[in-house]
Structures are given as structure tokens and as C-alpha cells.
Amino acid sequence: MTAVIQTPPTRLDVLRRLFRNRTVLIAALVLSVIALLAIFAPLVAPYDPDALSIVNRFQSPSLAHPFGTDEFGRDVLSRAIYAGRVSLLVSAAVVVFAGIAGVVMGILAGYFRRLDAVISRFLDAMMAFPDILLAISLVAALGGSLTNVILALGITYTPRLARVVRGTTLVLRELPYIEAAKSMGVPTWRILGGHVLVNLASPILVQATFIFASAMLAEASLSFLGVGASPDVPTWGTMLSTGREYISSAPWLMYFPGLAIVFAVLSLQILGDGLRDLVDPRLAKDL
Question: What is the pTM of this model?
């Protein structure tokens, strides 16, 4: 009787399994297009997003201006492309901030029993507030700027990731190979970095996609409410906030940035669902 040796899946195999679902594939393509437009905004945008042309104000969508113009004659398509750059940058920074803080707090709470009670109670207290309410309070206390928005949203979404990391670390801490490493005198920092953190990569990646989508929606909400980025900075939220004043006469000012938010957030959510189902097949479901 011959033994069958199973080789670990390659990255290409993982991508094939992920994109086997057409919905996930379409979401990834849409997200890629949005990201590429934002990255190459200076090359793709047909006009300067801040160029004023009072003569061309409130022009409806046309060949010259596919998304129309706003109250100052600025090209809405160009502003939407540049706004995507700001929204993606803010959301990515929030994911990095929440990822570092959440992983550190989650590992400390899950691995060290003495710190678990203190950190867990702190996370519970933060999660007792609705996300958007906590973000608004922090921005109001810190002041309205993109840096403070990133800081406020990072603090807001840190407990989400920290709770996931803590739960997984609690399970990993009791596994035999962790106990064996302890008995062999392996330093704690090496156990955390070489064994625990490596096995946390998948849940962290999945949770990061959901935080990315939530942060993008929250940033747009804060800008829409006027407590986020400065009004002169083009973001999808500020474009919606300005467009609502002219919704009856120039509805395209709200349609296109609103659709951009919907497509970006929905694509991220679908991609996150696909990653979650790939990591844990027990949670797999039809998208």
C-alpha cells in the first residue's frame, strides 16, 4: 500500500479556488479598475479636478463631460477619479493602523492570561458604541482633517480585528506544538512570531477586507456630514454633500459618486466573503 503525499496548494491554486465563483471574480475586476483609475488619476482624468469654468457650470453628461459638470464648471468625472484616490488611501491607512493595533492587542489578550481581562474589557467598552458615532466623536475631539479621520477610524475598527485575533490566539495557545515549544524553552517572542502570528494570517486578511469596506463607507459618511476631509479636498463623501443641494436641478452630481461608493464597497464585501469561504469552507455559501 503506497502512501499518498499531498503537496500544499500554490498561490495559483488558491487564486483559482477564490475566483471559481464568478461573482467574486467580477468583484475583484471592478475593484481593480477602481484602484487603477485612482492610482493613475493624473494620466486617466480628462481634466484638472480643480479647474474652474463658470461658463460650463451645471452641464449635463455629454461626450465632452461624461459625468457632467458641477456648480463651478469642474468636471465631475475627473473629480470622482481623484476622490477615489483619497478614499482608497484613507481606507488603506485605516486598515494598516487597525491591523497593527488589533494584532498586538489581540495576541497579548489571547496569549497572556493576566492581560486578557484588562484588554477584553477595554475592547468591549469600545464596541459598545456604534462605529459611526464613535468615529464622529473622535473626529470632533481631534479636529477635521484626513489625518484625524484616519486616526479616528483606525481606533474605531481596532476592536473588530483584536477580537478575532484574540479568539484565534486562545485556540492556538493550547495546541500541542505550542506547548512543545514552551517546554523546549523557545523564547516567547519567537513563539508569537514564528507560530502564532503565521497562523493568524488568513483571518487577519479576511477581516482586513471587511474593515477596508467599512472604513471607505465611514469616511464617505464623515465627509458627507462635514466632519471629515476639508471641503476643498475631492472625496466621494464631499461630492455627495455638495450635490445634495442641487439634487433637483443637477442630480448627476450625486449619482456618480454615489455609484462609485456602492461599487467599491460592494466589491470589497463580496471579495471578503469569498476569502472567508476559502479560509473556512464550513462558512461557504452562495454569494
Answer: 0.84
